[in-house]
Amino acid sequence: MNILVTGKNGQIARCLVKQLNTLPDVTLLALDRDQLDITDPIRVNKVIAEFSPNIIINAAAYTAVDNAEQESALAYAVNRDGPFNLAVAANNINAIIIHISTDYVFAGDSLAAYVETDNTEPQSEYGRSKLAGEQAVARACSQHIILRTSWAFAEHGHNFVNTMLRLAKTKTSIGVVADQFGGPTYAGDIANAIVTIVKQLVDGHQAYGIYHYSGFPHVSWHVFATKIFDLALAQGVLKQPIQVPHITTLDYPTPAKRPANSRLNCDKINQEFGLVQSDWQAALVNIEEYSR
Ligand SMILES: NC(=O)C1=CN([C@@H]2O[C@H](COP(=O)(O)OP(=O)(O)OC[C@H]3O[C@@H](n4cnc5c(N)ncnc54)[C@H](OP(=O)(O)O)[C@@H]3O)[C@@H](O)[C@H]2O)C=CC1
Ligand SMILES: Cc1cn([C@H]2C[C@H](O)[C@@H](COP(=O)(O)OP(=O)(O)O[C@H]3O[C@@H](C)C(=O)[C@@H](O)[C@H]3O)O2)c(=O)[nH]c1=O
Ligand SMILES: [Mg+2]
């Protein structure tokens, strides 16, 4: 079984590579941007023709949500055209493509957690470019899994946990928005979900389409931040408590608009693949491993 992973130095890709490396009967080719720029169709076709993957996992993306408002062309190149190139090449050799997407494809004005068939209406260039990527993948390769996740974090990489711990080094008070809700998701749990899906696809379980997978419980960014600081204080990572004033989205203006409701309903992935939402708090327990 040959598996190709793109964007190998990314937050989620790093967890994925670690887990895929433990699988027997898998030959893994994980490439970074220099080795395989997914926006280059000639290079994509060459790598895929030579390696002949059974499964392509696209973990490469443009993820700077605010910068995407200014760098829209680059965001679309990486988040739409790149996945399209991979999906076309996958389809040509009858391979499966697994593509990661985001809660930011939704408007966030629904009161309920979003299901896979809900209307998409991204509010940002990042979200629009990711939605265009989903559509390009689905159009180009029928054997596709599109996995939407949310609020990803890991010990390594750029994420909210590391941002909060970095800010806490120089501030005693950090206002955090209390009116945007979602499911923080540990990158290792996203990788585990993908590996679980891979194993079942390999066993012949055909269940292509869009799936939601995120962590639990659903919280506001404010509650997420509070939990991070509480654990950091308890474990001596922080020497003094941090004040965390409740603020609103209006108090924290950003170039890109975020959904107020980012909650993803994860029933479908449970029914098809037996995956249950992971407890993000369990992954934060080793808070001293973060932000180093
Ligand atoms: N982070 C999050 O909170 C969430 C992420 N997602 C999705 O999960 C996926 C992975 O995200 P995450 O791991 O957090 O993102 P990261 O930004 O950590 O990783 C993305 C990787 O893609 C690489 N990359 C950028 N452009 C290209 C290119 N043209 N060709 C090849 N590689 C490229 C980057 O390389 P370089 O560092 O050199 O730029 C980086 O290593 C993305 O699809 C993202 O949209 C979904 C929901 C939440
Ligand atoms: C740094 C900071 C952020 N915030 C707010 C801004 C925003 O509404 C929220 C989260 O900010 P961030 O910029 O860290 O998160 P953001 O980059 O929007 O995170 C998103 O990344 C992309 C890639 C995804 O796909 C999403 O699922 C989501 O994880 O917290 C504060 O209120 N106070 C602060 O000090
Ligand atoms: Mg950000």
UniProtKB/TrEMBL annotation:
SUPFAM superfamilies in the record: NAD(P)-binding Rossmann-fold domains
CDD domains linked to this entry: dTDP_HR_like_SDR_e (cd05254)
RmlD-like substrate binding domain ranges (all copies): 1-286
UniProt-listed InterPro entries: dTDP_dehydrorham_reduct, NAD(P)-bd_dom_sf, RmlD-like-bd
Catalytic activity of the protein: dTDP-beta-L-rhamnose + NADP(+) = dTDP-4-dehydro-beta-L-rhamnose + NADPH + H(+)
Coiled coil: none
GO CC entries: cytosol
GO annotation terms (biological process): dTDP-rhamnose biosynthetic process; O antigen biosynthetic process
Annotated metabolic or biological route of this protein: Carbohydrate biosynthesis; dTDP-L-rhamnose biosynthesis
Bound cofactor: record note: Binds 1 Mg(2+) ion per monomer.
Family indicated by similarity: Belongs to the dTDP-4-dehydrorhamnose reductase family.
Main function: Catalyzes the reduction of dTDP-6-deoxy-L-lyxo-4-hexulose to yield dTDP-L-rhamnose.
Name of this chain's protein: dTDP-4-dehydrorhamnose reductase
Provenance organism: Shewanella livingstonensis
